[in-house]
Specification:
The chain has 459 residues and is mostly beta strands. The protein has four helices and 25 strands. Strands 11, 12, 14, 15, 18 and 19 form a six-stranded mixed β-sheet that branches.
């Protein structure tokens, strides 16, 4: 695709992506021209005709414009001189060519006002640390703006700054077949706390900048318990939310003063791998509001993700791979985690609750609702998880799972105090520690995950 051409700087500036805005002309007074009589001699090639990645000064000198760019973002190279620029695609390493999208072809070059300018885009699939290239031959007829007459060989060498995959929408991210295994939380239609309201959605109001380590206080951070090295995403794209997308940022988590600095697995933010950026090619800055982030959970331990909105609102999240209950992206992943060590008593699958489950006992208020053993549908006997003779299974894996399929908007557990036996004096039944595992949107006000068509729990 040929780059789109513009004849005025104003039109060019309106067309380039917002990520390339605020550019300045390249400082070129230190460039070295090819020797007189050797203007057609390119810099020493690496292979074939490729010279954009050479570091040798034999042949004509290679003048390098180095950039650091996020994948999917754009940047501008402006050569503020009366020069003729010819781009050479054969000088670039195979598969590492930057995309040239817009260029400024001034009707009349005027130093400082209208000069050769080009926007490049780093491919979205570029990987952290990779270098992508563009190469050009710049000819200056007479000295212009400190650039002496001569022929210059220029290489643009752009290094990928972040290993982030960019998507225009949340649906675009989750709709990718390769994204089917992510665990995600979505904040939808959330009211936001103020200095006088209680926390109901995980967000907290901080009148002043929080002190280092504030997120470590018990009960402050939202628990995000997932499998080691799995991918976990946080979505804020719902338009009914009370926060403004343009103010959402990620804060670097800090440890308590005088404590050990956070590291991977001991509090540092997990590796950022994807985000919903909006339209990276949009010229308006409003098209670049980040509305979702995805991270790779640490292999061990935990890491904090802190989202900030505006000046006073913070959402601390603790991505933990050692704690339970753990959330899985699919029922299959849950079954794998729960194991199959006790044939015939590990998994209970329910596909027709109207026939398989009894109705909940009536109560005056939902707070009084309880279920006694008269209403138990299934009684399951399993071997103790801590049985020392069980050599096949790890003690960190549950022994019993319940899988529920069908169209249900919510599914939650009864608290232990709400499950009573049928003795003369009813008493609460003891239960193992709950390992709640499911997938879907999150309602942090109640702890229920809503909007699913399949649910799974393991203990």
């Amino acid at each position: 695709m040929e780059p789109e051409s513009f004849t005025t700087k104003a039109a060019f500036d309106l067309a380039i992506p917002a990520s390339a805005g605020g550019y300045s002309a390249t400082a070129h007074s230190a460039w070295t021209a090819a020797a007189v009589g050797s203007e057609s001699t390119t810099p020493t090639v690496t292979s074939g005709t490729v010279w954009a990645d050479t570091v040798s000064t034999t042949g004509s000198t290679l003048n390098v414009i180095a950039k650091t760019v996020n994948n999917g973002d754009s940047f501008v190279i402006g050569i503020d001189a009366d020069a003729t620029v010819t781009w050479d695609s054969t000088a670039v390493p195979s598969g590492k060519a930057l995309v040239r999208r817009e260029q400024l072809d001034c009707a009349s070059i005027v130093v400082g006002t209208c000069y050769p300018s080009y926007s490049f885009r780093m491919p979205q699939n570029a990987i952290l640390g990779e270098v992508w290239y563009a190469a050009a031959k710049v000819v200056v007829g007479t000295t212009s703006n400190a650039l002496v007459a001569g022929t210059y060989y220029i290489a643009v060498q752009a290094t990928v700054n972040e290993p982030v995959r960019h998507y225009p929408t949340w649906a675009g991210l989750t709709g990718m077949s390769s994204r089917a295994g992510i665990v995600s939380w979505s904040w939808a239609n959330t009211g936001m706390p103020t200095s006088t309201t209680a926390v109901t959605t995980g967000w907290t109001y901080q009148a002043t900048t929080p002190t280092a380590g504030w997120q470590e206080t018990a009960g402050v951070a939202v628990a995000v318990n997932v499998a080691p090295s799995s991918e976990v995403c946080f979505d804020f794209s719902d338009s009914t939310n009370a926060f403004t997308l343009s103010t959402l940022t990620l804060e670097t988590p800090a440890a308590v003063a005088l404590a050990t600095t956070y590291a991977a697995g001991t509090g540092a933010q997990p590796t950022l791998v994807a985000q919903v950026t909006g339209d990276q090619l949009a010229n308006l800055a409003t098209g670049l509001d980040v509305s979702a982030w995805c991270f790779t959970a640490p292999a061990t331990g935990f890491g904090y993700v802190i989202v900030k909105s505006g000046t006073n609102l913070y959402l601390p999240l603790k991505v933990d791979v050692a704690s339970r209950p753990r959330t899985f992206p699919t029922v299959a992943a849950l079954e794998t985690d729960a194991g199959d060590r006790f044939a015939g008593s590990v998994v209970r699958k329910y596909s027709d609750l109207n026939r398989q489950w009894a109705d909940t006992v009536a109560a005056a208020t939902s707070a009084d609702t309880s279920i006694d053993t008269t209403y138990l549908i299934d009684e399951v006997a399993v071997k103790a998880q801590s049985d020392p003779t069980d050599k096949a299974g790890a003690v960190s894996i549950g022994a019993f799972a319940v899988l529920i399929s069908g169209s249900y908007t919510s599914c939650t557990e009864y608290a232990e105090a709400k499950l009573m036996d049928t003795a003369t004096v009813p008493a609460a039944l003891s239960r193992p520690t709950t390992w709640l595992t499911s997938f879907g949107t999150v309602d942090e006000a109640t702890g229920a995950r809503n909007g699913n068509s399949a649910w799974a729990f393991s203990w």
